[in-house]
Design goal:
With 251 residues, the protein is α/β, with parallel strands linked by helices. 51% of the residues lie in helices and 16% in strands. It folds into two domains: 193 residues, 2-enoyl-CoA Hydratase, Chain A, domain 1, CATH 3.90.226.10; 50 residues, no CATH class. Strand 2, helix 1 and strand 3 form a beta-alpha-beta unit. Helix 1 runs parallel beside helix 3.
Length: 251
């Protein structure tokens, strides 16, 4: 791969943005590799995924020099394909943790938003600066941001284009935890291993429930998935292990 690095640590796959000299800016090659990588990881034996980046910047967002060469007709043709990349990451059957060590701007912020968990270094910052170059955040960034931080904080970030610090991101609920830079990746690996140790099907269905809840017939979906989950051998094994552990703890 030209822009990404894939690393495996036990049951955990690490997907690294690997163009630190370009501030991990996103272009068509990055998008293609991200989609192909997450499609593959969704089907393999990986149990959890960490999305991280090499260098001081998580991602400066879309490569403006690439964007500036596109006319309106080209943008119209490509938008659906670009949207599909982020949708693929968000819909991945495995839990995805974003480990954000530095600035995450525009399309880089969106990469964080489509993850299931966001852990940030104290040196991280987050922004949607698109209005400053005459456009606005698209690709579903605004509704995703609003769902996480609320309409007031989302409007402030989007309409001013100003970034927020890691501390402010924690205060508004954009990230779950802010960590010293030297512990960020070990904490992400620890959380990923915790998720990987759980019954895989239950975790996958529980993740899917959040997306399904936005549909029109969630009750039927929930009932069917719950019964299917109950029928799996791993559910029976997990319950028996729980009961045995409780018995072992009794005096």
């Amino acid at each position: 791969m030209q822009t990404l690095l894939l690393e495996t640590k036990g049951p955990v796959a690490w997907v690294w943005l690997n163009q630190s000299r370009r501030l991990n800016a996103i272009d068509i090659t990055t998008l293609t590799e991200l989609r192909e990588t997450f499609e593959a990881l969704g089907q393999d034996t990986t149990r959890a995924i960490v999305l991280a980046a090499h260098g001081p910047v998580f991602s400066a967002g879309f490569d403006v020099s690439w964007m500036a060469r596109q006319d309106a007709e080209a943008v119209a043709r490509e938008l659906a394909d670009v949207e599909a990349v982020y949708d693929t990451i968000e819909a991945c059957s495995k839990p995805v943790i974003a480990a954000i060590q530095g600035p995450a701007m525009g399309g880089g912020l969106l990469l964080a938003l489509v993850a299931d968990f966001r852990l940030a270094s104290e040196e991280a910052s987050f922004g949607a600066p698109e209005v400053k170059i005459g456009i606005f955040p698209n690709l579903g960034l605004i509704p995703r941001l609003e769902r996480i931080v609320g309409v007031g904080a989302a409007k402030h970030m989007v309409l001013t284009g100003d970034p927020v610090t890691a501390a402010e991101a924690s205060r508004i609920g954009l990230v779950e935890q802010v960590l010293p830079p030297e512990t960020l990746h070990s904490k992400a690996q620890s959380l990923a291993e915790q998720l990987a140790a759980l019954p895989a099907h239950a975790v996958q269905v529980a993740k899917g429930a959040f997306a399904a809840a936005q549909g029109t017939d969630f009750v039927s979906w929930e009932r069917a998935k719950f019964v299917a989950c109950w029928a799996r051998p791993e559910r029976e094994a997990a319950m028996q292990a729980f009961l045995q552990m409780r018995t072992d703890r009794q005096p």
